[in-house]
Amino acid sequence: MKAAISRRSFVQLVLSGLAPVPFGLRAAAQPSDFDPDTLLVPTEGISGRWEPLVDLARQISTEEAQLPEPQLSGIFEGLDYDAYRAIRPAGLPLQRDDDSILMDPLPPGSVFSHPVSLSLIHGEQTFDLRFDPSIFEFGADYFTPESVAQAKDQDGDEGLGYSGFRLRAALNRPDKLDEFIVFQGASYFRAVARGLIYGLSARGLAIDTAAQEGEEFPLFTKFWIEAPEPKSHAVIVRALLDSRSCAGAFEFEISPGETTVMKTRCRLFPRREIDEIGIAPLTSMFFFGPSKRAGIDDYRDAVHDSSGLQIVTGTGRRIWRSLGNPPTLQVSAFTDENPQGFGLSQRQSSFDFYQDAEARYEKRPSCWIEPLDPWGRGSVVLIEIPVRTEFHDNIVAFWRPEAPLGPSDEGHEFQYRLHWSAVSPDTMQLGRVYAHRSGASINDPDQRVVVVDFRNDEAWPDGLQVDARANGSPVDTATLVHLPDGEGLRVAFNYEPGDTDTTELEITLMGPDGPASETWLYRLIRP
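RE: above sequence
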């Protein structure tokens, strides 16, 4: 049953591949021989609260990392995409006698081979969730009754464990529980808000991303999910992170809705000095858009989960860095002090922009990182990796502190919110970049034509001027025209790169009182 899994299939698998199933008063898709109470093993006292978790992370950071080994066997081994989708978990209510929020423990299999420990906190008692294949329903089209019976005789003694979990609540309508977040694979997680579908992902921590010696992927090895207060949909999830170089404690207070908000804090305990470390990392995909279609034979007009990196600097400057699919690996660093926020955004929300009735890229969320304490000096780092298809994530963004993080008994703490929504929560009234295009000049093939469209929810001020620059030098040929839709303005100019392979472009619309738009940035690379 082994088969290659495309990125689109992988995303569906990770995020929504386990098809929603009916739910009852005690559990969703409850097998006839399954009693959810038998899974809950009470611990001695309570564990999984913040301070004990910090102490645990501090303690294990003084020892060599003991990471869980990949483990698949029996019915969970060698599963392809469709077979893995055919395993459906029961949904466990987080609150006694209240099934308004369900947790689905996710099965091992396919690319998910690292077991994680799951625990539930009810009041002053913690319950470990014992691994039991009886919690799953196995689709008859892919699994025989004999293999299912054998699997349900297995338990944790074989080294198997859950691969993660997802949470469901009445997100879009009151009579249906929709998943709004999933934690699965290394330290990855994804969330959605009302009316959106899964797209980009976040991680607990990034280490040595794009480094020549290879990236290190920390793991969430254990989760504690705390039952919310009655009639509340705010769920607290805590997690222990571990890797060769760092241990850490994480806490997420998750509130789903029109914007799904995750108030986050982490305490990191490096085992060594880490220079290439990424705080609040985001991962996405950009294959192509109107700016560059050379060599792409596709009926769609654009294919991406995110269209740009948005930054609000510590001084309040608004930046929009359009994403690209470069011919070679590109790393950009935007130096700052105490940033107000950054994130990867899917700014175009019209089906007409993409023309993909299956992937529905216009419904992919944006994710905004809002620091809640001063982060000091450092850089927002953007990494763009060349890809030839849409089936691989190739965009990474994170905050990198200026000074390396080293071993510390107190650890290094960061607090921030993640906002998953259709648009960024930054509401400052400025013109915003909607799209950009570039191509060879009709009159002179040595020149490039660059076109950037701005839109504004408010009226544009009088006396607008274009501040356009290439590698820091002013561009005198820029023109500004109103678009036929009456809503936007277009900046266009010709640029001759000469012998320069890479050009850093910058455009800001200036009004009489200062910037009337965010600053557009883009790295133009010779085809």
